[in-house]
Amino acid sequence: MSVPANLKYTKEHEWVKIDGDVATVGITHFAQGELGDIVYVEIETEGETLSAEEVFGTVEAVKTVSDLFMPLSGEVVEFNSGLEKDPEAVNRDPYGDGWMIKIKLSNASEVDGLLSADAYSALIGA
Tell me: the pLDDT tens digits for 20-55? Predict the structure, then answer.
């Protein structure tokens, strides 16, 4: 199972890629595998400023609907609109084409509270 070392992770199975004061967020390979075939991604928080751990959207799979949680506080500045037509990208390429949102960080020090790849691997037993 892939857990890229250059990313940070949450206990809720989101991954985070930090680039300056912008974070790109998606769900992990483990999470998409647990959910099964993704059929819909709903994110209506673009332009909103949310706190860490608030719900920023939902992902719908054949067998369940799951909330998506903000890994860090900030403004949702971009939604991956490609997921509207191709939600399966989350299954196919969770760390690439399957990214979900970009956040302009409000508090960069929150990054220190995220899990490393090793810590996330231990969490999921990989």
Answer: 999 999 999 999 999 999 999 999 999 999 999 999
| Class of the CATH domain delimited by 8-114 | mainly beta
Q: Are 74 and 49 in contact (CB under 8 A)?
A: yes
Q: What are the sequence ranges of the domains in the chain?
A: 8-114
* 8 A C-beta contact, residue 38 and residue 64: no
Burial class (CB in 10 A: 0-12, 13-18, 19+), 112: exposed
Q: Return the number of other C-beta atoms located less than 10 Å from residue 82's C-beta.
A: 13
57-115 residue pLDDT tens: 999 999 899 999 999 999 999 999 999 999 999 999 999 999 999 999 999 999 999 99
Q: What are phi and psi for residue 115, nearest 5 degrees?
A: -85, 145
| Cα-Cα end-to-end distance for the chain | 7
